[in-house]
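Hi R.,

Here's the chain you asked about this morning:
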Amino acid sequence: MDKASEGIEPYRAGVLGPPWILGHRGAPREAPENTLASLRRALELGLDGVEYDLQALASGEAVLLHDDTLDRTTDHAGPVGDLTLRELAGVDAGGWFNKRFAGEPLPLLQEALELPVAAGDAAPLHMIEVKDPVLVPEVARQVEEFQGRIAARLASFDRAACAEASALGLAAMLLAERATEDDRRFVRDAGLAAYSVGPGGWPADLFALEWPCERWSWSLDDPDELLWAARGALLGWNTNEPHRALAARALARLAPEDKGSWPVRLSGLEVDPDPRAAGAHGAWSGRWQPVARVRNPFAHPVEVGLALLVRGGAFDVEGLPRRLALAPGEESLVPFGIAGGSWSPGEDPRLLARYTSARGPGRPALELVLDTTLERRRSARLARDARRLSLLVERPGERGATMVLRRRGRELVARVEDAGGLSDVRALVRLGAEVRRGAAGVRVLLPADFDRLPEGIPFSCGFEGRNADGRRVVRRWAGGVPAGIAHGAPGRLFPAASA
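And here is the predicted structure, written out as tokens:
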């Protein structure tokens, strides 16, 4: 299984968009996000284009960066808006990710638009998310210069920015966390080209309506959602999981009669909520006996090779690797054991399933890798009464810390109760795909249908603060915070009546 990530290769040339697949901030699992190295890697993997974020420098130029500060993804700190073009040259945007990317610069918009295209390849699609609306005219000017060499969508959560972009002749895309009827009317009245929502953001009733524009999703990584999108639901999406997304598109094309769910399924690995349960491997650890469900979605027999890919932490595995022979439509249950983990939430193990079959009547030989993640996660129920959450102890000897959740109608209130010895704390709450910050507490709205969601919603909380040495430290209840894909899976927040 050492070539598992290359499993889509035999079909890359024959399984092209639409639907279109773009790399979210490039290929952020393989190169530092929003850098030229990351954008190039996304195109090398066979994606149809790239998505990236733009912030404005003090001198007015558009630079690729998601956050409004330099702290998270560079070796500098402070607001990016205080930086001049001359000062930008001294910023290292790659060393934080891996030492082999040390010295990777923060690119300007023009450098991203100049990405080389291989002879004969289609022009890449650029989804350009404008964080600062002041940049819209400059983006329109630069995109116009590259007309014919690229296709572009200017994306923003800001309605005024989208309307301005559309008036300037750009194909504008309104972004939202979840589709609403009000957004549908705005997109129609403003004549926007596209509308894109976050993971799980297309309610069935709204999706069934006629939309006067392209329908997209952003940060689409879940296997079932990718397969739904690949079967023709969406015109395109961006993803942090390019191999999985390309495999979903290949699967939809190669097994067109299959209407089932993602063929490789696992339940999550529940982490003990009691901080005293931390073992030798750390607080984000455990011992589990999961069962994999592996199904053959093809109309012919296949062989399936199963193996576990560990990307972070230390694990012992029993029962894998394994090989299966499956008839058309057959499903097999594969139990195995896994023990270990890490002190901090991070990349979770993956189960890789390599489907292979020989050439047959009217079909080529098959080699396709499908994967699913063994997510370590915690769960909590939200009642009317206050709920105390113990945060993870992520370093040996670290003091305990707690936060308190309270529900007030549709409002969720999370506040720091015991800061664990940190000062200058700022609370963090992730609900769905969004992370919000506050002072000692944060208020966020629950979805209107929260009490009718038996599977709950992604959730985590925590806070940032300064330790005795003045260094910024993050404490958290589960993965998913702060922003970024390297901080593990969020937990699940359930209504009080849910199982």
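One quick note: The chain has a mean pLDDT of 91.

Cheers,
M.
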